[in-house]
Amino acid sequence: MKINNIKIFAVAILASMTAFNCSDDDDSINIPDGPDFSGTYIQQDQMARPAINTVLVNDGMKDAFNTTVPSNMGAMFAEPFQAKLEALSPAYDPANPTDANALGFTAEAFAGVLATDVLTVSLDGETTFFNPASGATLTGRTLADDVIDVELILIFGGEEGLSNPEVPGLVSDNVDGNDKPFLTSFPYLASPHM
């Protein structure tokens, strides 16, 4: 058995030495000037607010949603989003169009906000996805913001949100933190698991 292993090892070394060859044309090293941006590029995905595209965009419309310019999204997607919100959550009763979420948005108003998939940012206030204590909402997003819980609260919590949710079992994904601490300096993201 040792002889076969030695033969295989010798063949592997010989093959690697044969595959690595040198040439004498190293006087002309071709270093590109920079990245090549020629060609046609198209947008493939759009997800400013996580899970909104996944949950609220109807099947067959995901490609259209991903490639629609944000200024056109509201007109195309607000109505189907409203129908989906009303179908998913008893917190939005279609028979009562004044039913609202913790932000005071009716299904129609909230669908209009969500249909334009951009992440708004406050330039002079708190940057947060949702802070009921300060009243800042959808003014940006920090790495530590629990975006999925916020979205679940706004869809299933009703007018009182977490204090008395209309659908208590659906206002949290029960993931309360990152699996690794964020860094204190750029790039701030936790290092990946190896």
UniProtKB/TrEMBL annotation:
Protein keywords: Signal
Source species, domain of life: Bacteria
InterPro entries: DUF4331
Signal peptide: 1-21
Protein's name in the database: DUF4331 family protein
Protein's organism: Winogradskyella bathintestinalis
